[in-house]
């Protein structure tokens, strides 16, 4: 599945995280708390999904989570946090890379892990991005069933590349 | 008014104006200035155009309508007004698309010739966000870099994202 054209994307933003990014139409904010916003597919919107019911169920398990995780005194704080999070999640890493997104240093780790809640299903693709601009740190984390790994990998990569880290007056970030 | 701007590796700079509830990507090296209910971007001076600088601005306004039919009628009227405003005005193209903030945009590219022969290339975009909020973009350039500038103007429009009102 190629990433949709801009007309088929939706902009998502939470003042709790200060992170603006894009996902395909059908994704929406499912949960918000201090410093955190979680996104998933609207269960009532099947326009952008595959026709068969199995794919629909698998897509419904996909999540994209954004967190504003505070500040670091180290210029390499994002690398340290990326390693800690990968270990804590029991991530079997398949690839890692660094890239610049909105003038932030971003370390992206791709791998597979079992969900913390084993009842939530089997092994998942995890795309984890830890971003640092100045002292501020953010985590963007996509997860999806491994059966849909190829298309969700492209989708999560594009969402991370589209991120803008917005630091607002009175905002958390 | 709170603004935040950052650069990225692609040669663009993100700029957010919380008071206007918008975020955009401006070309690297351009400067930004807050104006009443808006923001204006300036490109570098072009000596081959008499030192003129390309400008791109967006302002927020309260619309007198909302919805597909109103937007179609309003933008058609805006094009008629443009054509009537200059003796030698040529409409170079129009586009209608939807931003990722799910707001419809109508873009008009045109140029006109002043009595002294100077040709100015412009872009006008109308964005309908809600029954109480619309945005208008005006951009202008002249000289040998005009074609590239108009492409940049269009890219800035397409980069626009609108923030939800802060509760």
Fold and architecture overview:
The complex is a heterodimer of chains A (about 170) and B (about 170). With about 170 residues, chain A is of the alpha+beta class. Chain A has helices at about 55-60, 75-90, 150-160, and strands at about 10-15, 20-25, 25-35, 35-40, 65-70, 90-100, 105-115, 125-135, 135-145, 165. The longest helix of chain A has 13 residues, at about 150-160. In chain A, about 40% of the residues are buried. Chain B is of the alpha+beta class. Chain B has helices spanning about 70-85, 145-160; strands at about 5, 10-15, 20-25, 30-35, 40, 55-60, 90-100, 105-115, 120-130, 135-140, 160. Chain B is globular. Chain B has two helices and eleven strands, in the order ββββββαββββαβ. The interface of A and B includes residues 10, 101, 164 and 169 of A.
Using the CA coordinates, give the radius of gyration of chain A: 15 Å
State the low-pLDDT regions of chain B, or none.
Answer: none
Main sheet of chain A? 7 strands, antiparallel
Question: Using only CA atoms, what is the Rg of chain B?
Answer: 16 Å
**How is the largest sheet of chain B built, in terms of strand order?**
4-5-6-10-9-8-7
Structural class of chain A: alpha+beta
Features:
heterodimer; A: 173 residues; 7-stranded antiparallel β-sheet; B: 167 residues; 4-stranded antiparallel β-sheet; globular
């Amino acid at each position: 599945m190629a990433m949709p054209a801009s007309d088929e994307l939706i902009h998502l933003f939470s003042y709790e995280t200060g992170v603006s990014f894009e996902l395909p139409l059908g994704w929406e904010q499912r949960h918000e708390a201090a410093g955190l916003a979680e996104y998933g597919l609207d269960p009532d919107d099947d326009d952008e999904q595959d026709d068969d019911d199995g794919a629909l169920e698998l897509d419904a398990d996909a999540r994209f989570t954004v967190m504003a995780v505070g500040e670091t005194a180290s210029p390499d704080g994002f690398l340290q946090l990326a390693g800690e999070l990968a270990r804590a999640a029991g991530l079997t890493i398949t690839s890692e890379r660094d890239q610049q997104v909105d003038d932030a240093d971003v370390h992206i780790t791709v791998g597979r892990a079992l969900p913390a809640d084993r009842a939530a299903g089997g092994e998942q693709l995890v795309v984890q991005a830890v971003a640092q601009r100045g002292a501020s740190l953010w985590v963007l984390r996509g997860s999806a069933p491994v059966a849909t790994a190829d298309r969700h990998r492209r989708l999560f990569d594009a969402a991370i590349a589209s991120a803008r880290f917005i630091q607002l007056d009175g905002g958390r970030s | 008014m709170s603004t935040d701007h950052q650069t990225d590796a692609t040669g663009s700079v993100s700029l957010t104006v919380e008071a206007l509830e918008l975020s955009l990507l401006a070309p690297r090296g351009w400067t930004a200035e807050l104006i009443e209910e808006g923001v204006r971007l300036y490109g570098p001076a072009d000596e081959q155009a008499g030192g003129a600088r390309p400008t791109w601005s967006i302002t927020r306004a309260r619309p007198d309508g909302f919805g597909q039919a109103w937007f179609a009628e309003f933008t058609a009227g805006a094009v008629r007004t443009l054509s009537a405003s200059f003796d030698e005005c040529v409409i170079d193209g129009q586009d209608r698309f939807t931003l990722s903030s799910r707001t419809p945009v109508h873009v008009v590219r045109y140029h006109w010739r002043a009595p002294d022969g100077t040709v100015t290339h412009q872009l006008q975009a109308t964005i309908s966000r809600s029954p109480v909020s619309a945005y208008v973009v005006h951009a202008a350039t002249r000289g040998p870099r005009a074609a590239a500038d108009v492409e940049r103007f269009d890219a800035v429009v397409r980069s626009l994202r609108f923030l939800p009102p802060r509760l």
